[in-house]
Amino acid sequence: MNLSSKINVGILCITSLLWSVALSGCQHEMTDIERLELTHGTLNDVVPVGGTITVDGQPQAGIAVILYDGEGKKLAPIRPALTDEDGRYDFTKYVAADGVEPGNYKLTFKWLEIVKDKKLGNQVKGTDKLRNLFSDPIKSQLSVTVEEGDPITDLDFDLKTK
Predict the structure, then answer these.
(1) SS percent in the chain: helix, strand, coil, step 5
(2) Are residues 108 and 139 in contact, defined by beta-carbon separation less than 8 angstroms?
(3) Average of per-residue pLDDT across 23-42
(4) What is the pTM of this model?
(5) What is the DSSP code (8-state) at residue 80?
(6) Distance of CA 20 to CAs 3, 17, 27, 66, Å?
(7) Which of 68, 74, 95, 109 could join 32 via S-S bond, C-beta 3.0 to 4.6 A?
(8) Could you give the percent of the chain with pLDDT greater than 90?
(9) Of 37, 46, 41, whose CA–CA distance to 67 is shortest?
(10) Phi and psi (nearest 5°) for 100?
(11) For position 10, what pLDDT does the model report?
């Protein structure tokens, strides 16, 4: 290889390296929302909604907090949120704790046993420890209005069973 060929190869290597460095600076890591929009199209806006549930004054883990969207007898359940050991819950639409779409909702509660399954993850099973006192969306007197741009972080309830 003559000197001219060696210089051309060197210039080509340096140019490739510079372009690689320059282009890597232009890239950014995609967020979970960007990935979802890429695969599912435009996502609806959501508002953070969460709070704390206690039973007879005590926080309890594993209570399903269920929102129902709609009126009358055709209520459609929204994915439930589960309370943690401090009784805290947050609703999730797309990514953890991002919230729900604005609207009027009825609330219900079920407290089932959480069973850990190696293949399926956490599963809820058994009978309602709240004795179905708060599980009927038609009879529920508990509701919330979620407005665009107005997060609700203190949607707290003390469920009385005694």
Answers:
(1) 20, 30, 50
(2) no
(3) 62
(4) 0.71
(5) P
(6) 26, 5, 11, 50
(7) 95
(8) 43
(9) 46
(10) -130, 165
(11) 47
